[in-house]
Amino acid sequence: MLWLLNESSVADRLNAISPLDGRYSSSVKDLSAYFSESALMRYRVTVEVEYLIALGREKGIKELQSFTNIEQTKLRNIYKNFNAAAAQKIKEIELTTNHDVKAVEYFLQSKLKKTLYPWIHFALTSEDVNNLAYSLMWRDGLKQVYLPAVQNVNRELKKLARRYKNSSMLALTHGQPATPTTFGKELAVFYHRLDRQIDQMRVHKLLGKFGGATGTWSAQKVAYPKVNWIRFASWFIKSLGLEPNLVTTQIEPHDSLAESYHQIVRVNSILTDLCRDMWSYISRGVLGQKKVAGEVGSSTMPHKINPIQFENAEGNMGVANSLLNHLAAKLPISRMQRDLTDSTTMRNQGVALGHSTLALKNILNGLGRISVNRSHLSAELDKHWEVLAEAVQTILRKAGKQDAYEGMKSLTQGQQVDADSIKQFVSQLTIDENDKQTLLKLTPADYTGLAPKLVEMI
Q1: Which of 24, 181, 252, 348 is a good FRET partner for 429, with 20 to 30 A between their CA atoms?
Q2: pTM strictly above 0.90
């Protein structure tokens, strides 16, 4: 995009305070188009230009003529061709004004004829521009960068779930051997959870306000009392792709943004759960990791391949959720009509999404490196025939045995049981012969219930 600032030099990245702008800049550079200072300026210019065009359309404002199609194109090119030089110009103006939105207004004056000066930012307060700009930034950053990234992760989870739907695996509950599952089914759980959150993010609507200094349209009404300003504001906000919030103070109260932040928090929580499970699977030998030529796992232990992608992701999601939870808790709170605590806080929404996006890329990388250790899966299952105690006692309950649970408990609780012990116990049972044969043929690897069918449901 022409309006983006040039990519930082290597020296700049090495001296950056934020790891997003330094070490990880190449992984999150796409977000610069939506959350950099230059991007914020561009979105503000967009709102101001579109508002000017909308004022020209309003028939009740006789003093401002409507803009021709050619004039509208020229106006819109101001933000469509926004570049580093334009951002630098606004920053230079701000050195004098010490007010970032007023600097945008003066920048636009430098682009337009003097007869239009009075109509730039007409009857607006800064928050009319800012709330729309920040919501548009968040919406576009989600749509263009974050959602595609989380969908890539979920597609990979689905692919792996299908591939390994029949790969029997010992489950652990409370860290103890439990009813077997399949590796594919466990991944399908995470796919299913993420899919629900993705659906909610897709349909979520962000709100916008445009009601002046205290949300009353007072300046607008005193200038043009016959104009239906509520209808005008509703149409204008919708034209930007946002939903109107017509009853506000000076600020849009940010409730819809807080809801969106919480959606990302939930995604990060689900994926933190995934990362910890993947870490545990690798630790216990269920999963292996592909070697990468030249990569070092330890400065002193040559044999190591560390699960660094999942660890990096977990750390970054923790940072992101701390920021997102703070944003969601702080932004809806403002003293009276407003205070400026939201202004500095809001600038960090891109940082939070940056850490979340970085985590997604690491998870995708990590998932691409794993392989299932089938021999380890089989060996682990074969060591724990006691997990069939559930199956045996369930058949005993079916046969009406009142002490079914207690009988299996005495045989298996806290003990590692082998195949012979289970088969010997089953062979002595007085139960239906078909049920007995089912139990005698059953192995831990076979005891996965509907796990493969569940995978096919996603």
Answers
A1: 181
A2: yes
Nearest 5 degrees, angle CA 296-CA 297-CA 303?
A: 100
Q: What is the pLDDT of residue 3?
A: 41
pLDDT computed for residue 2 by the predictor: 41
Q: What are the pLDDT digits (tens) for 150-175?
A: 999 999 999 999 999 999 999 999 99
DSSP label of 145: I
Residue 389, both tokens: 């105690």
Domains of the chain: 10-119 (1.10.275.10), 127-378 (1.20.200.10), 383-450 (1.10.40.30)
CA gap 388, 444 in Å, rounded: 7
Q: Find, among 230, 61, 49, 259, the residue nearest to 133 by Cα.
A: 49
CA atoms within 13 A on the CB side of 72: 12
Cα–Cα distance between 307 and 1 in angstroms, integer? 36
Residue 51 neighbours by CB distance under 10 Å: 22
Beta strand 168-173 with 176-182 is antiparallel
CB contact at 8 A, 269 and 321: yes
So what's the pLDDT on residue 300? Answer: 64
For 383-396, the pLDDT digits (tens) are 999 999 999 999 99
174 is catalytic: yes
d(CA 48, CA 56): 13
387 with 443: CB under 8 angstroms? no
Question: For this structure, is 298 an active site residue?
Answer: yes
Report how far Cα 42 is from the mean position of its chain's Cα atoms: 24
- How far is Cα 403 from Cα 260, in angstroms, rounded to an integer? 52
Angstrom distances, CA of residue 330 to CA of 119, 333, 340:
34, 6, 12
Instruction: Tell me how many degrees the CA angle 212-218-221 measures, rounded to the nearest 5.
Output: 115
Out of 26, 174, 299, 375, the active site residue is 174
Q: DSSP letters of 356-394? A: HHHHHHHHHHHHTTEEE-HHHHHHHHHT-GGGGHHHHHH
Distance CA 35, CA 17 (A): 17
Residue 155 DSSP SS3: helix
Candidates 239, 298, 322, 410; catalytic one: 298
3-state SS string for 142-208: HHHHHHHHHHHHHHHHHHHHHHCCCCEEEEEECCEEEEEEEHHHHHHHHHHHHHHHHHHHHHCCCEE
